[in-house]
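Message: Study each token:
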Amino acid sequence: MSSLSKFRGAVATTATAVLLPSLAHAAPLTPGGIFADAMPLVQAVMLGLLVATIAAIAVCVLRLATGGRSAAGTTFLSSLRLGGPLAGLFGAGLTTLSLCVGLANSPAGVPVKVLAPGFAEAMLLLVLGAGTGAVAVIAHWAVKARDQRGVAA
């Protein structure tokens, strides 16, 4: 009886090792799928970066449309220039930490296809953070240029 249970365990382990890469490859990986599979804290970071990017664009458009010289929004854009990439780096670090803990706890070697979604999630966070920072830098530059032209005129 014990040899039968050992055989079943071996078959189950082999089947898992054989099927796991194919399950990971079963559906194409999309940014929406990456978001859906992320931890709630990482999802919050992703949403925060997207909202901050949209807010930076809105602040820039409003400041350029009104032509006002007030400091409203400039501090937000200035903070977002560094805060966006740092938030993306935080999320990527959290994802990579989770990936490494899972890898350390796996009893056998894990194929790269199983690890790929975790790497994609970390890269998505880095890209979102860098994109948010780039939008904030451009928006801050545009607002400052408008303010300087307004002062000179």
Remarks:
- The two ends are 92 Å apart (CA to CA).
- The chain has a mean pLDDT of 84.
